[in-house]
Amino acid sequence: MDRQNCFHCGLDIIKAKEIIFDKKEFCCNGCKTVYEIFSLNDMTCYYDFEKSPGATPQDSNGKYDFLDNESIVSKLLEFQESSTAIISLNIPHIHCSSCIWILENLQRLQKGISISQVNFPEKKVRITYNPEAVSIKTIVLLLSSIGYEPYISLENYETGKSHIDRSLTYKLGVAFFCFGNIMLLSFPEYFEVKEYWLDQYRGFFRWLIFALSLPSFLYSASGYYVSAYKSIRSKMLNIDIPIALGIIVMFVRSTFDIVMDYGPGFFDSLTGLVFFMLLGKMFQIKTYSFLSFERDFKSYFPIAITKINTDTSEESVPVYDIQKGDRLLIRNQELIPVDGILISEKAEIDYSFVTGEAIPITKQSGDKVFAGGKQMGKVIEMEVLHSVSQSYLTQLWSNDVFQKKVEQKHKTITDNISRYFTPILLLIAFSGFGYWIFIDANIAFNVFTAVLIVACPCALALTAPFTFGNVLRILGKQKFYLKNALVIEQLAKVDTLVFDKTGTITTNKKSNISYEGNVLSDENLLLIKKVLRTSNHPLSRMLYDYLPVSILQNKSEKETPKLKVDAFEEITGKGIQAQIFNQKIQIGSAAFVEKIDDNSIQQTSVHIRINAVYYGKFIFNNQYREGLEVLFKRLSSKYQIKVLSGDNEGERFTLEKLLPKGTELIFNQKPEQKLEFIKNLQQQGNNVMMVGDGLNDAGALAQSNVGISISENVNVFSPACDAILDANEFQKLDYFLKLSKKSISTIKMSFTLSLLYNVVGLSFAITGNLLPLVAAIIMPLSTITIVSFVSVMSSYYARTLIPKGK
Amino acid sequence: MSVIYLLISISILVAIVFFIAFIRAVKKGQYDDDYTPSVRMLFDDELIQSKIEKPKEESSAILNLKS
Question: What are the residues of chain B with a beta carbon less than 8 Å away from any beta carbon of chain A?
Answer without folding.
Answer: 1, 4-5, 8, 12, 15, 19, 22-23, 26-27, 29, 31-36, 39-40, 42-43, 46-47, 49-51, 54
